[in-house]
Design brief:
Shape: globular
Number of strands: 21
Bound molecules: zinc ion
Strand content: 15-25%
Radius of gyration: 26 Å
Number of helices: 21
Largest sheet: 8 strands, mixed
Helix content: 40-55%
Strand order of the largest sheet: 1-11-13-12-14-17-15-16
Structural class: alpha/beta
Length: about 700
């Protein structure tokens, strides 16, 4: 076992010395975040509610207690209209009471929102009714209501709540909804019928309430209704939906050089009770990283880094957008992001793997490689310890936590949390996104402290703190050590792209000449991405121009070899020459230019494209309406394509070039889909489409 222990001593290199890594590893602990999580999981943390503000107050008190600088809360007004960047604000919600009883034929309490808040869907409106329950199936389709009079009644439905609210309440006068809507499906979905899931109504609709019940309870009610029982329910809801505030906490560890920019740690403080992994875990883990780094820097154990380290806790997407829109000076200063959303699950309970998630291809960056190195360091140590070697200190094991291995890997970009904002082209702060995925208990009443592991929390706190410190302290003196390492990482990713390109050449769905083009394109885009990754490090560290040239030469040589191998394979399949699947014409040579305020199209409760175009025009966007071809729709990747198409808009790339860029990142896609989507963005005045410039 000597080999693995030797590897351990150098596992954190080239980014930290073993002394620095040991300092961070020994300072972070998993008990503090676990106990802080105990408090947060008692609160129903819906944005714009008193319970959310209570959670925000708790975080600020802790941050002040840990000695962080400038720890405070900020309030951002919301009214459903006011915008922050491209995003429209949402609404606040205040619940005084919410009870649902079965009155006839039995007398039994189904839900009490004060003692068990998850059972009342967010943004439920005031109502007081005693009425019959009626089964409308999913309640998502007009046909679900055929021959049924739901006026004044409570509908039992398992469809998406906002859609049921529209069809049953707004269009047909139902009083409210009883829902067992499943969401976030995984292979384990349905195995536990007792889970109660989170529900959100559309706060912009003016009426309706919904109570959430388990599949088991809903199944029994459906059976009774089917047998002809008249089930009478009494619903009493007192709640208001309207203007209010989002609260966002922030605190810093000041750097030595105010002109060197800032590194930002983020998470999201909102979500239903208990919301332990999603995302109480991220909130308490960045707080622990903050505590550990503050202590190490304040005591002089680690040199104070040149960049300021900032921490932000707010509502998902909404807090990020509100904070950045209100502080354009800080937004401009941000250089890198560490985002944690679901990082504390015990994998033997929630079935999750912890992922270091790459930045999208539109924003190549070395930040992922830094996180990947610490992931490996912890993984080796955890394995060695699990096998009976190594020490609990090296493996970051807590007495009150598990002795599990660290189930973790590096995965391609995926959307779904605030890193979408940071990574988007108009903010362009590369994000190290840490996440457990999937999680069998996500968005249910079982996402509780019972599924959390103090050892896991400690490991992720160490990973995040180490990466954040590297970003904050990095300067050009380290480039000679880091560049060769990073180049080797880039070569590994190039080899992965080569394997994928080989598969495309043999893809029977592509004609031989077109397949050759797509394979070459993948290789070329991959080479661009890796050269840009090396460049990102040099710019970040403030190194001399072209410091990365040796690495770039090596990557070019590697790409040339791969390209010649692809040519042999394509020829063997009968290809004559690479043939582009799109032609140079007046559509494909247009150059899109961003004109709307900053931010991605989609945020938590807002879709800027839908809001600006209206439902009818939006429904005709081919990429999003299910007419986008097998690959895009079956793999449910339309959202990722859309996100990246807009990110690749930089005022220089043409429509055809954007098509090639997203095709390499995900899968070959028709240029018509890309052009059609960009035309919709232009119709919504998010971009404008310029004619090709001949002077370039
Ligand atoms: Zn989350």
């Amino acid at each position: 076992m000597l080999a693995s222990l030797c590897s351990l001593a150098f596992a954190q290199e080239p980014f930290l010395s073993s002394q620095q890594w040991t300092l961070i590893r020994d300072e972070v602990n998993g008990v503090a975040p676990y106990e802080n999580l105990r408090y947060l999981t008692g609160l129903h943390r819906v944005p714009g509610t008193p319970a959310f503000d209570q959670a925000a107050h708790f975080i600020v008190e802790r941050a002040q207690g840990y000695g962080l600088d400038d720890a405070h809360s900020e309030q951002f007004p919301i009214d459903g209209v006011k915008t922050y960047g491209l995003m429209r604000s949402y609404l606040a919600w205040n619940v005084q009471s919410g009870e649902l009883w079965e009155m006839q034929p039995r007398h039994v309490l189904i839900a009490n929102a004060i003692t068990d808040p998850i059972r009342l869907a967010d943004y439920s409106h005031t109502n007081s009714v005693e009425t019959s329950l009626i089964d409308v199936g999913s309640g998502m389709n007009q046909a679900d209501y055929t021959g049924k009079n739901v006026r004044g009644k409570i509908v039992l439905a398992d469809g998406v709540l906002s859609r049921v609210q529209q069809l049953a309440v707004a269009e047909r006068g139902a009083a409210g909804i009883l829902s067992d809507m499943p969401n976030q499906t995984t292979a384990w979905s349905g195995l536990d019928p007792t889970l109660v899931r989170w529900g959100h109504l559309d706060a912009r609709q003016s009426a309706g309430f919904a109570f959430m019940i388990s599949r088991q309870t809903a199944g029994m009610l459906r059976a009774r209704l089917a047998a002809g029982e008249d089930i009478v329910l009494s619903a009493q809801v007192k709640a208001t939906v309207g203007p209010g505030n989002w609260t966002v906490d922030t605190a810093t560890i000041p750097g030595t050089d105010p002109s060197a920019g800032q590194v930002v740690f983020s998470c999201h403080l909102d979500h239903e009770r208990p919301g332990a992994n999603d995302d109480g875990s991220g909130c308490v883990t960045i707080l622990e990283a903050a505590r550990a780094l503050e202590r190490l820097v304040q005591s002089g154990a680690l040199p104070r880094p040149k960049r300021t380290i900032r921490f932000i806790w707010g509502p998902e997407h909404e807090g990020t957008m509100a904070f950045l829109a209100t502080h354009p000076d800080i937004m401009k200063d941000l250089r890198a992001n560490v985002h944690m959303d679901m990082v504390g699950g015990d994998p033997f309970k929630n079935k999750a793997v912890m992922h270091v998630t790459e930045t999208p291809w539109s924003l190549p960056s070395f930040v992922t490689d830094v996180g990947a190195v610490f992931l490996e360091a912890i993984r080796w140590a955890a394995s060695a310890y699990a096998e009976g070697d190594g020490s609990p200190e090296q493996a970051l094991v807590e007495d009150t936590g598990t002795r599990n291995e660290f189930f973790a890997d590096v995965t391609p970009f995926d959307a779904g949390s605030d890193h979408d904002d940071y990574d988007s082209s108009t903010i362009a702060v590369p994000s190290l996104y840490l996440r457990d995925w999937p999680d069998t208990y996500i968005h249910t009443d079982h996402d509780s402290l019972d599924q959390m592991d103090a050892t896991k929390l400690r490991r992720v706190a160490a990973l995040g703190a180490a990466a954040g410190y590297v970003y904050a302290a990095l300067d050009s003196a380290k480039l000679p050590l880091i560049l060769p390492f990073l180049c080797a990482q880039s070569e590994t990713r190039m080899a992965t792209s080569f394997s994928k390109a080989r598969n495309w050449i043999n893809d029977s769905g592509l004609a031989p000449d077109a397949a050759w083009y797509e394979a070459d394109n993948l290789l070329a885009q991959s080479l661009n991405r890796e050269c840009a990754t090396l460049h990102s490090l040099v710019v970040f560290a403030g190194g001399p121009a072209n410091s990365e040239s040796e690495g770039v030469n090596a990557l070019n040589a590697q790409a040339a070899t791969f390209k010649s191998w692809l040519a042999k394979q394509a020829t063997a399949r009968g290809a004559k020459a690479p043939a582009a699947p799109w032609t140079v014409n007046s559509v494909t040579t247009q150059v899109p230019v961003r004109i709307a305020p900053f931010g991605p199209i989609e945020n938590q409760n807002d879709d800027a494209l839908l809001a600006r175009l209206g439902k009818e025009r939006y429904s005709r966007i081919k990429l999003l309406n299910g007419n986008s071809g097998h690959y895009v729709s079956v793999l449910d990747q339309a959202g990722l394509f859309a996100y990246e198409i807009l990110n690749f808009v930089n005022g220089k790339r043409s429509v055809g070039e954007i098509r090639d860029a997203v095709s390499a990142e995900y899968h070959p896609i028709s240029v018509d889909l890309v052009a059609d989507y960009l035309e919709a963005l232009a119709a919504a005045r998010i971009i404008r489409l310029d004619r090709a410039r001949n002077d370039q």
